[in-house]
Specification:
Layout lengths: L1 E7 L5 H13 L3 E5 L9 E11 L2 E2 L1 H9 L4 E8 L6 H11 L7 E9 L4 H8 L11 H10 L5 H21 L2
This protein binds flavin mononucleotide.
The site of flavin mononucleotide has 22 residues, from helix 1, strand 3 and strand 5.
C-alpha cells in the first residue's frame, strides 16, 4: 500500500504539470493517475485531487471523482486563470470541498495559476460589451498575466508544498 495517490484532471496540461511535479517529488510513496483511469482508492492513505477551475467549480470529471470518495483524507489542488489566492481562487477551493462526502477530511489545499486556453480567449474577445466575459482592460491584463503559468517558480512551490505535506503527514497521520 502506498501513501499517496495523485489524481488529476487536465484539459490543456496545466494541472497535469503540477500533478507530475508532486509525483516527481513524492517518488516511491505515490502513484499518479488521470481522472479517467483511477485505481482502487482504498489502497492509498491520502488522495491528492487536482482539477482545472471551470466557472468557479472543479471541472466536471473531477466533480464526479470527488463524489466517489468516502472516508478519505484529501488534498485539493487546482489551477485557474485568476490569481491563485484571489477571492475567486479561494472560493473555488471551497466549492471543490462541497463535492466530498462528510466522511472525507480535507488535509491540504494548493492553488496555482494556469494559462487560459487561447481558443477560449479568442471566443471571449468576440463577446459583446456588457457580457460578463467580454474583454476589458482588466480582463485582458488578467489573461496575459496568466499566460506564462504555471511557470518554474509555481512548479518549485508545488514541489516544496508536497515536501512539507509529507513531513506533516509523517508526523501527524502515519
Ligand atoms: C471552459 C473554461 C472555464 C474556465 N473557468 C474559469 C474560471 O471560472 N475561473 C478561472 O480562474 N479560470 C477559469 N478557466 C481557466 C482554467 O481554469 C485554467 O486555464 C486552468 O489552468 C486550465 O487547466 P488545465 O490546463 O489543466 O486544463 C476556465 C477555462 C475554461 C476552458
Amino acid at each position: 500500500m502506498k501513501d499517496f495517490l495523485i489524481v488529476y484532471s487536465s484539459k490543456t496540461g496545466n494541472t497535469e504539470k503540477v500533478a507530475k511535479k508532486f509525483y516527481e517529488v513524492a517518488g516511491e510513496r505515490c502513484d499518479l493517475a488521470a481522472v479517467k483511469q483511477v485505481p482502487a482508492v482504498d489502497d492509498y492513505k491520502v488522495i491528492f485531487a487536482g482539477y482545472w477551475v471551470d466557472k468557479g467549480e472543479p471541472d466536471k470529471d473531477m466533480q464526479e471523482f470527488l463524489q466517489t470518495l468516502d472516508n478519505k483524507k484529501v488534498v485539493l489542488f487546482q489551477t485557474l486563470g485568476a490569481e491563485a489566492y484571489s477571492e475567486h481562487g479561494i472560493s473555488s477551493l471551497a466549492n471543490a470541498g462541497r463535492y466530498l462526502s462528510t466522511g472525507c477530511k480535507v488535509v491540504g489545499t494548493l492553488s496555482i495559476r494556469g494559462a487560459i486556453d487561447p481558443k477560449l480567449i479568442e471566443t471571449m474577445m468576440k463577446m459583446p460589451e456588457g457580457h460578463p466575459h467580454a474583454p476589458t482592460e482588466e480582463s485582458k491584463k488578467r489573461w496575459k498575466d496568466a499566460s506564462t503559468h504555471p511557470d518554474e517558480a509555481d512548479l518549485q512551490a508545488a514541489g516544496e508544498y508536497i515536501q512539507k505535506f509529507i513531513t506533516f503527514y509523517d508526523r501527524f497521520y502515519k
